[in-house]
Amino acid sequence: MLLPVFTLKLRHKIIPRMVAVGRYDGTHPCLTAATQAGKVFIHNPHLRSHYSSASRVSQSPLESDVSLLNINQAVSCLTAGVLNPDIGCDSLLVGTQTNLLAYDVHNNSDLFYREAIDGANAVVLGTLGDISSPLAIIGGNCALQGFDHEGNDLFWTVTGDNVRSLALCDFDGDGKKELLVGSEDFDIRVFKEDEIVAEMTETEVITSLCPVYGSRFGYALSNGTVGVYDKAARYWRIKSKNHAMSIHAFDLNNDGVCELVTGWSNGKVDARSDRTGEVIFKDNFSSAIAGVVEGDYRMDGHTQLICCSVDGEIRGYLPGMAELRGNFMDPTAEQEQIRELSQKKQNLLLELRNYEENSKMALNSPLNETDGHRGVIPANTRIHTTLSVNLGNEAQAAHAELCISTSNDTIIRAVLIFAEGIFLGESHVVHPSIHSLSSSVYIPITPPKDVPVDLYLKTFVGYRSSTQFHVFELTRQLPRFCMYALINPDSATEPVSYVNFIIAERAQRVVTWLNQNFLLPDDINTQNAPFQVCFTSLRNGGQLFIKTKPNGEITINTDDIDLAGDIIQSMASFFAIEDLQVEANFPLYFEELRKVLIKVDEYHSVHQKLSADMADNSNLIRSLLVRAEDARLMRDMKTMKSRYMELYDLNKDLLNGYKIRCNNHTELLGNLKAVNQAIQRAGRLRVGRPKNQVISACRDAIRSNNINTLFRIMRVGTASS
Amino acid sequence: MELTLNRADYVQVGVTSQKTMKLLPASRNRATQKVVLGDHDGVVTCFGMKKGEAVAVFKTLPGQKIARLELGGTLHMPQEKIFIATGSEIRGFTKRGKQFLSFETNLTESIKAMHVSGSDLFLSASYIYNHYCDCKDQHYYLSGDKINDVICLPVERVPHITPVLACQDRVLRVLQGSDVIYEIEVPGPPTVLALHNGNGGDSGEDLLFGTSDGKLGLIQITASKPIHKWEIQNEKKRGGILCVDNFDIVGDGVKDLIVGRDDGMVEVYSFDHANEPVLRFDQTLSESVTSIQGGCVGKDGYDEIVASTYSGWVTGLTTEPIHKESGPGEELKINQEMQSKISSLRSELEHIQYKVLQEREKYQQSSQSSKAKSAVPSFSVNDKFTLNKDDASYSLVLEVQTSIDTVLIQSDVPIDLLDVDKNSAVVSFSSCDSESNDNFLLATYRCQTNTTRLELKIRSIEGQYGTLQAYVTPRIQPKTCQVRQYLIKPLSLHQRIHFIDHDRPMNTLTLAGQFSFAEIHSWVVFCLPEVPEKPPAGECVTFYFQNTFLDTQLESTYRKGEGVFKSDNISTISILKDVLSKEATKKKINLNISYEINEVSVKHTLKLIHPKLEYQLLLAKKVQLIDALKELQIHEGNTNFLIPEYRSILEEADHLQEEYKKQPAHLERLYGMITDLFIDKFKFKGTNVKTKVPLLLEILDSYDQNALIAFFDAT
């Protein structure tokens, strides 16, 4: 059993995920965490603090070895580490929704204070790819930005949605770090500098990422899932009803390989083997875990695992000795093992008994009433499933439909579908009322996104009066584009927007792709190009045309730029296309984007004006206050009163101004997000190198504020015509 | 002195019932004892431990499920004869496994509880109690509610034969011959009885009881009246008590109290100077502890607690240290022992696995034939659906002998499913789009591996009734699932009590019509929990109930052709009226319903609610302030500047937050009940006041007792 080597109880709350350990003077590690009221506390037990009452730092009134750093704004991310290799000590980085502060704690000075218009939801510190100096990379609303120690903006790119987690990890094993980005659209993207090299779709918002070992990295989702990826393949994952607050890789059993340590919302901490996910150590705190970090906190040359709870309880663990290996859980591991084996034996014996009883029953007379009650069904009962498209009626919107039926007179009591991302929870239940039980069940399915989904079905089969049912377990895959119904091209109008590209594939292969990715009433058998198919979306009724020409040219007509992107990405992976240049035209979308860009400009100017107003007002306040106090000293109560009244009014104005500024800011953020997403979407229409070219070219165009070039890039893929 | 006990698993048999494991008396002091237990397969197993290996002494052939196992023998001699109750039969075995008795009692129900004392045999089926002496029928008693356990004070120490019945209606019935001398009300439905110290204590009259809601108590049963000695409340919200024993495990010369609960908790209480129990040790075994006894099994010289669990594990919690202080070679040996045990188990497993694979194939093949049937025998599910008095919610406990895969919960009434900290299953709620399917709740619990027990908490609303169904699928091939149904009754939050406050202002509902006693009883059973299904003896019966949430009361008296229901809560009467008339219409019985509404009762009920509501409002307010106050504290460094009220909030912050968390939606529930009260009050007057409900909610938002009462009066 592994016991903590130290425990501390700080009287400060710790905000989850915002904990770091830094050696701000180069030698003494200090635990740093964000706490309430826009403050950051620094726990420095090794040095009596010598901070004078400087601008930012103040001594905590609660504890002598804790100093508080006033940020005056809700902290949204925090980390510590080497930002400037020349000064030989760690810097503290604190991000808020509007700014990023790099702070030299030891010298009590700002390294830089930069405005981050996209906000900073996550921050990571380290070297990225070939960029020589360490970068502080922040992730905000769809955007990623990297700063060096002088505050120079050396890295900038966009991603699909709001960033929630960041990590640096040598993903492809080339000795250089790649950036892992987890965002709110459930995707983990891997950036090799500003090029996306991999994308993994998860089932929920990715809340944490951490490098584990080599190309392995851990991740945590907002639905309680924790797991490990090796490159783009998932190694293992587990799901708990609690939420993973913080994950960290640490070699707790001294076997040379880091384990994934998770801090949970119910106060549990567990360490899991990176290979299997097996728990090798666990401990419990009385409140939720806020962060898991590591550091040589006792300064004895050994690194400890440090776990902090939201209530300020801190425990440090030393890695176990080698001979203790695999023995953390319980001193009676063998007992455990025997128990497990006996349980297994008992289960097998039970199964054996089931078969015995079954064969005994089979000898009896044919089915009768009591048999049905006890859940006896014909042995040759089969379950059939079919997926089709239902165009809906007045009562029900159009949907994809799963039909499950039995092969005889048995009934389906209930169906459980486990699938990720398409239902409210992880499962969907169909439980017909007792009066409408039958041998078939129709289940409407409306996946919100175009992703392929595995449906794990559990069907309870029996008779009307049964109290015990047979459970049939099946797996069906829902095709990626199941929400599109095949229609007659003559009755449809072709959308004006299109993408156009050439692939070197035979027509049959395209047909195979169609058959696999759409729910078609019958498989298409066309052998030769040219041909065209036409679909309508079950979500919004939009049309989709896919046309091929004999020369391999494919044109996709749709007004939905996301759908076009999805189709291209799906084709690219099906045909193993590495690079694909595409010509695209989405006049409606482009028009909207143009409006957004104009709005962004407007909001920017409003923002500047408001800031100027605020500065004026604060000057006014200062003078009013002085004059009011003067009046007080002169015992001119009347003037003093009127001054204070003015001050009061001005204060009200300021508050109103602040509200306007806030609204303006959220609007601005929303629009900036739309712009960032547009770039991302334009990228998704291409594959490989052209994709990265588009993104970087778009970025340059936005920087130079050249809207027309931006649209040309989005259309043809390059800036030069 | 701290008590440390180490766990050692001995053997696993089939599923076991309550009180079916005993230790045979040892030949000499602290020598190893043999364990004997009976399971649901009807097998009696007797084994001893030799060098860490379980060695069977005997094993009987399978038969009917064994409900109880007791030891007996001639008085004042070692009690080493084994008696089992299976079906309606009692069998006796010697300690060598030879059957010497087979006694068919000819009871119509199967035996549920048994006590053996010399040549006296005390048996009880669900409602019937029988006393036999030398297998000859002596006395008989028909109980009003289910009998959970039976015991007799030691005949050699007490002048009369005094059997005691533990009945489901929260009463211990003390008998003499075939008559009840007196009844003792206990705080919960008693599930187990035991003689204190194994012999009834100093007087021979001390009796321990445990309840299904986890309370324990000691009562002295004197010839004329009971004397309550002590009671232990269930503050930690642990499971119900299934078994108790007295054994000196601490080693201080005083026998300690050992308790096994249905959530797997094993507890040891020792007695302080005032003879009050103090908790000394607890450990969880993760599944129901069905029987428990102190003794010595694993190694002679080391005392231990032996427990059997629901799925048939016999586990020892021993004082024997795991790591011996002897030389390093010794440890290695133990390790080797373990290793050889593991490897033998492994090879055994492989063998079975092979067999299973063959059978599996056969089963697959049989599915090709059109004539064959697939009949998988039912697995046993141990379930419990009980009302918790403390937070007026139901808890549903499901336990299966193997690990559970998924549980599907379906309900055709609106209920809330609450999170239980203990269970680790991932819950997901499914949308219940079409009301035509009668689904108000569809939820799946996907259990983590090795979960054999699942606990759920359910909050019901009075007046809304229907059925809750649980589909339990264990992780075993071929996969099957079993449905369990639980009734949510119209007055689901009511609990039986035995005394009622007659001074309260009461509203009365009177039914008259052509119905039989059995019919009206069945309606009462339909409406109220904790009423025995069997119509009680006699012509007229009275039951008292209390609303666990509001503490209002209900008195129901009925006979053939007439029923009178009195309650101080108008809503209760309203619900009863609606349900009873509906039930009667279903049976096409013409009912004459009359009611008498007491205006004062509404005010009275509001006054009952007032302290609860006020407490909740204050609590909510305080909890809201905590964060802000804490921030101030950090800013200022001390709390001297705060007014005492705020300082006390800060001091009690943790406690307040805990209290607040414990009762989620408590305020909303109170609001709901006040609204019901309001609507019902005017319903009886014949006016519909639904339009005024928003106004009422407004008044509740800025709660003031007088304003509320005035509003009730004014409208």
From TrEMBL, chain A:
Pfam families assigned: BBS2_CtH, BBS2_GAE, BBS2_hp, BBS2_Mid, BBS2_N, BBS2_pf
Location, primary (coarse class): membrane
Subcellular location: Cell projection, Cilium membrane; Cytoplasm, Cytoskeleton, Microtubule organizing center, Centrosome, Centriolar satellite; Cytoplasm, Cytoskeleton
Domain BBS2 GAE: 396-481
Domain Ciliary BBSome complex subunit 2 middle region: 165-272
Coiled-coil residues: 338-365
Ciliary BBSome complex subunit 2 N-terminal domain boundaries: 20-126
Record keywords: Cell membrane, Cell projection, Cilium, Coiled coil, Cytoplasm, Cytoskeleton, Membrane
Residue ranges annotated for the BBS2 platform domain, each copy included: 484-575
BBS2 hairpin domain span: 587-684
Family annotation (InterPro entries): Bardet-Biedl_syndrome_2_prot (IPR016616), BBS2_CtH_dom (IPR055381), BBS2_GAE_dom (IPR029333), BBS2_hp_dom (IPR055380), BBS2_Mid (IPR029429), BBS2_N (IPR029430), BBS2_pf_dom (IPR055379), WD40_repeat_dom_sf (IPR036322)
Domain BBS2 C-terminal helix bundle: 689-715
Name recorded for this polypeptide: Bardet-Biedl syndrome 2 protein homolog
Gene assigned in the entry: BBS2
Automatic annotation (TrEMBL), chain B:
Leader sequence residues: none
Stored SUPFAM superfamilies: WD40 repeat-like
Sequence ranges assigned to domain BBS7 helical hairpin in this UniProt record: 599-712
Residue ranges of domain BBS7 platform in the record: 494-596
Superkingdom: Eukaryota
Segments forming domain BBS7 beta-propeller: 21-319
Annotated InterPro entries: Bardet-Biedl_syndrome_7_prot, BBS7_GAE_dom, BBS7_hairpin, BBS7_pf_dom, Beta-prop_BBS7, WD40/YVTN_repeat-like_dom_sf, WD40_repeat_dom_sf
Stretches assigned to the BBS7 GAE domain: 377-486
Keyword Ribonucleoprotein: no
UniProt keyword list: Cell projection, Cilium, Cilium biogenesis/degradation, Cytoplasm, Cytoskeleton, Protein transport, Transport
Family matches, as PANTHER family: BARDET-BIEDL SYNDROME 7 PROTEIN
Subunit structure: Part of BBSome complex.
Functional summary from the UniProt entry: The BBSome complex is thought to function as a coat complex required for sorting of specific membrane proteins to the primary cilia. The BBSome complex is required for ciliogenesis but is dispensable for centriolar satellite function.
Protein's UniProt name: Bardet-Biedl syndrome 7 protein homolog
Source organism per UniProt: Erinaceus europaeus
